[in-house]
Amino acid sequence: MGQQSALTQRQSEALEAYSNAAGKFEAVLRQRRAQIASNQPLPNLPGQALYLARNDMISTYKDLTDVLPGRIGKPNKFAIPPAYFDADRESLLDEYFKIFDVLDAPPANAQKSDTPFKDVADLGMAVARVKGLDAADAAIAGRISVGIFYAETNGIQNAGNARSNKYKGSFQTGPSEDQTGQARWAAIKKQIASFDPALSLRDDKEEARAGNLDHRFNHWTAVRDGLMSTHADIFPQVATIAKVLPDPIDQMKLFELMQIIPTPTRAALRSGNLLSYRISDPTIMGYLRNNSVFAFGQTDRSRTSANYREILDAMWLFNAKFEQARLKFDEMRTK
Asked: Residue 5's pLDDT is what?
């Protein structure tokens, strides 16, 4: 009580805002879990309220630690910077991810693969070789591809999306991206067949299996089309990118930005000074915030611009996913 009374008004308000946000997040989690357990109808985009409540809890905690640095605690298992997250709330995020596993479950007619991670790596490396990369740089492209799979779905194949009615599947593509990817794959299919006949044969089998199914719910075709629509034309720059960004995690982050803000990222790559390229368009900054970049706390949310080095550093919520991807790729390469 004595500590509470010693707080300034700003500190007291920050503490109250955080307590309210954490309580609301817990309440939303309980509500959604009860709805699932009792098979109640769920609202449209049932994950959106959870996502916003989680963000609000993280944001208000960052606001609290900005005015009360002593509240910055111990590291947490999610690798979230301690200034943004109280490790004592780990159980809430555990429940958050468990609920999303249910909400994002693949549809009943989805066509899974028995080797989902190998598929992603093989397709990424094959496309990279057709684009002219040597074996070493193609391996980087394969690792990046596995990173995108983790970033988009936590490595869950054929995932739905409880926050969007548009983006679905293993690479979370929209219908237009999927159609673009199919057309671009068809254009290089003969090269793939001459370069890697076994992979081409697998592709023929998966294409036949998919038939009239939405290609985003066949893991193989979803990954193939996602890579072709968004990433394949950047693969020729992998060697240059690796020199500028020697950290594999940074490389994955850059390609994830091709998912989030493709046009500015292409412009940044063309600029010749990738890390210093600055974004100030409010719409683009909004896209970043909607994907958990500069999304937490008043200080971050008030930013009106950022360069690519700052953006990559602000993508800390992706760090754990990309580390998983790096380890998974290394494991597959060792085997």
From this structure: 58
